[in-house]
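Quick start: load a record and inspect it. Here is LysR family transcriptional regulator:
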Amino acid sequence: MSLSKAADEMHIALSAASRRIGLLEDEFGVGLLRRLPGGGVEPTDSGMALAAHVRILMRNVDQMTRDMRDYAQGARGHVRIHANVSALSSDLPMQLATFATARPEIKLEVREARSIDVVKSLKSNEADVGVVVGEHLLSGLQCAEYKVDRLCVVVPGTHAIRSDASALADLLDYDFVGFDNNAAINTLMQVAAAEASKPLRLRVTVQSYEAACRMIEAGFGLAIMPEQAARTYMQALNLRFLTLTDSWANRNMYVCIREGLVTSPVQSVFQHLIAQSC
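Running the structure step on this input writes:
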């Protein structure tokens, strides 16, 4: 890493950059950079820790700027909603649209993320409202039951399986289309396969329900996914689904906010989604 190049990118003199780093080192009593034998510098452990904190501060400053600009333009609130893909493949988009129509003065910002990442964003103040699956993730948050997310088995329309329902253990002789390693559905499948003392034959891994359905259509295997997501693609791709009879197939979904004081717009979105729960 070149300090002079970094100074050029920030449009300040090298001496000014060195001075600012020196002031920070004096303030905290630690070294932030170490010189390399061949020239240049690299951050120390304390330097990397400080950089991580600064990134968080800069994100918060950016968010503050956006919020104040919205208020200046007549908005009365800004709510960041992070939700898992199951929620966004279900009723959540229309429920948020209903809220946006009723409360146009509140700006909604929506982002898709894994449930575990939604919780992290809530706790680090990068999200205001979260929709997640997984009771084990909810410590330290104010949560309410939102809906039941029912998983099913998606198969090609012409597949030899003719039953309307099955346990996963009875399907483990077939290949499966799975999701990446951070997906909660993958974990549920792996645990169920281990309990049945059979291997889970993941032939393909994908990132989205649409991609999984297209791989099923192409004959690469079966897949486990929420019923509502499966219904979206069934007719167009000639697929059908079986009811999954395992107890873990009915997953509770929760809407969450941070504990303690929250703004009235955040509370309004939270209460709206609770009222829509089923």
